[in-house]
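Appendix B: complex inputs.
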Amino acid sequence: MQTPVKYLARKHWKQTGVIALIGSIYLLSSYILKFDGLSGILAIPRAFTWLWINFRPTSNSIQYLPSIWQKLIGTVMLAVASTVVASIIAIFVAILGSKVTGGNSVIQTVVRGIASFFRNIPLVAWAMILLFSFKQSDFTGFLALLLLSVGYLIRAFMEIIEDEASETMLALKATGASYLQVIFQAVIPQIMPSLISWILYMIENNVRDATLVGILTGTGIGFVFDIYYKSFRFDAAGMTVLLIIVVVIALEILSNQIRKVIL
Amino acid sequence: MISNSDERLVVDPNDQQPKKIRLHEASLSRYMILSVLSFLTLITIYTLMNLDAAGVKIGSAVHGLMMTLRQMFLQPSAGSDGIVLLLQSLGISLLLSIMTTVIGAVIGFVLAVFASKNLTNAYLGGGIRIIMAIIRAIPTIIWVLIFSIVCGLGTNAAVLGLSFHSVAYLTKAYSESIEEIDQSTIEALKVTGSKFWVVVFQAIWPTIIASLVSWTFIRVEINFANAVAVGAAAGAGGIGYQLFVSSGMSFDFHEVGMIVYLVIVATLLLEFIAVKLRKAYIVK
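Resulting structure:
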């Protein structure tokens, strides 16, 4: 039995230790990376002043609005398409690989391995490899987002199936239903709300990632931003960022409302 | 759904029995799922039909891709840069992700305390949440590019850009965890006359520590992926820059393969540590 005094003293030392550990990680990293904390902090107000002066969309940037808007909508649709195709692939793989609905342990391990592999290959690598074979086109952007989403969605869907569908599945199995009946009548309807919630999250994420993919592969909204940014048309670049903010926040609000209804 | 079926256990004798058993309950949730699904499918079909493939022949492109993948994964080599340089760059990317997560976690926790509905007044909380939503909506790469104009290309811009996004992300994640706390815990401490920060560190902190740890580690993984990406797209150094040079400039796909393997090992290592630490905190 610990006395309260001893317990509090230990707790105090432990807290100090954690704070010291975090502090030393920060100091060590900033030393190795040569990050100057003070000039970093001072750069923030400078960056925002610079943004306010240069990035502010002016009456001149209105002329860019239609072409930016068109590219942005195209990018959002590309993100939706890649997410939907990825989730169709992922749901079948997840059913094969989950502990509840899956086959033997060999198949489960293989599926887990594949998912982890796809998830961990950097987006940059996908984008550059695909760019090399498929050239600069929307299709390259689509494939890069698709390959990245598949890994994430397989893991997410497997967890959903294991968390939510096992009891329903047992109940239907008890009635003598076949494997396919169990999958299509019990498992898929049961997990549908969580599935859609994840698909919506992935779409939001892919819209943001599409900017990066676009900068690397020369497609969509990322390419537009990159052109304006590199040709010093900062007001147009600012307009692009403003529209990205509007669309991403609108998507977030929309998907939160949908989640409220379905979950 | 449960309450509906409970009511039906009591059968009113005057009630007419339905002729057909309805397999699916008609509900708002069901209609919403159906309409969202069909809407997403329509967009997908439309997009795929109109996808611009820039005249690339799919057959030969896939063949080329397979060749590249074989070079990458079956014959990886350190290339002209040498393994030492690659490991150094990997270390820089890892440190970058850990450091920006530390910054994000510390500032994010303070902001989350002020942003949570059950702790502060609605205006302050709402204000912080709106600002964080705007910061989050801007992709990390754009933050880094913006800061690189002021600080010059390099570590400072990368650290600031990654930290900005981390702060915004973790503020949201932490404040959602704080809002899930039972209000009576906070009330009980307030009644004893405890000050605001005492309530935060004695009641809130211990209650949500497990979810804090798991959110923070998710962010380390995201930041590592972002550090690699930012290194490539903004020239901010680290393994991402090496990846960009070897794939986009010298087309040495053997080296790309080596880098990809190194990145995979690093992420698996981070995941392993995260799982161990989470277990340690959840058991306590």
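The radius of gyration of chain B is 26 Å.
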